[in-house]
Amino acid sequence: MERANYKYIVPITLIIVVFIQFLCFFSYGFEVSTTTNGKEIKWKKDTVTYLINTTDGPSGSLDAIVASLQTWTDVDTSSFTFIDGGTTSSNDHGEADGINIIDFGKIKDEGVLGQNNFWFYTSGEMIDSDIRFNTKNTWSTDGSLDKFDVQNVCTHELGHSLSLADLYRDSDSEKTMYGYSFEGDTSQRTLHQDDMDGITYLYPSTTNSSISGTIMDTDGTVLEDVNVWLKKGSKTKKTTISDENGFFEFTDLESGAYKIIARKSGYQKVKTNVELGEAEDKELEIEMEEK
Amino acid sequence: MVKTLFTTIILAIIFMCGFNTNAHAIMTGLSTEELAKSSCAVVTGTVEDVKSYWSADKKTIFTGALIKITGIIRGNIVQNSITVEYEGGEVDGIGLKISDMATLNKGEKILLFLKEEKSKREELKENVFRIVGRSQGKYCIDKNGIAKKSGFSVIGGKEVIDNNIPVETLINKIKGVK
What is the Cα–Cα distance from A272 to A270, expressed in whole angstroms? Predict the structure, then answer.
């Protein structure tokens, strides 16, 4: 009788273990920072601009940082957009001034490579984030084995800017938010699915916005058969062609920063930047000039 | 037999789930020896009180934690209680978090690597202490006497970090640093 019970206990407990491991995996695929009262911290808006100061950084730092910003922006399932606000000479790191800065400078404490200071209301709304690379360390942008990689660290730190926290389990080692890395490591430049799940959890894509418009020439005559591209970050999200009324439309869009590109043979290409809010229907008038 | 099996399974589950941490970071890994050599004192104690306040210029937030000392492992501290100060905290409805910065919570039993310095509070005349190596310099001691630390991430040096070890082993290691 006891042996018969034991026969069932082993498979049942194995199933329980696998099930709990499954739950653990999904429970701890990412971590979100909280206030002391346990409220999740996150930006209220889903478009955050960083100014960049690469003074004292290695050559190629600007491109590396911009690539890091783009990596998070390119997550299709999230509406969040990091905007490259251009360069600055400011080194106002750590101040709650509403200006987000990425720079290079000295950090006093022992062993610190990079630092992210972020400010928030205790209601959970994040209001400022500044990232600094410690110039006491040697940085590179080409994956040199004996140096710290700017893009690797920046992508990780930007994860903190989104409010994602470090992860420490061995099973997290493939993730950008893994807490351990090494000199020359470039693996965290690329997001793991759990990193993408993290940004999506915090800033989910809501596809209830649209962009439409009319395309005309400089005389006000509507233009038919204009190729129109909708881009978010470096990715083309949708394409369409203007109808006989010069009209085009992109529907089911999430909020965020977009670029509309219109091209037609015999006309100069037109690029238009669009900031699209949630549940917003934006209407544009695009004028194309003959070559 | 069944009891042993279930105990093993429960331990496996705990191991698989890991434990939850919630902080930010990029540091280089610091060994116990490096932490000890960079410290003027290493103590065990209990966090009795925690209070955050604005800096004099109102540009940043600091937190002061009152630590009741239960043991001095290294260095000369004559007080029964000390104040450990660090940047970050929450005050007046606003909060600041800083990468890797150790935070102290009331009631925690801890082992700290410390450096003495002037307080950021101008009205405080006596010196305070800061934790060396941010979160790497703070161990929490659980009810089983295991010293654990978290809240930091490192590039390089993972292998030199002592973590999840009996506190007595850690103390002996610290005492052995010349």
Answer: 7
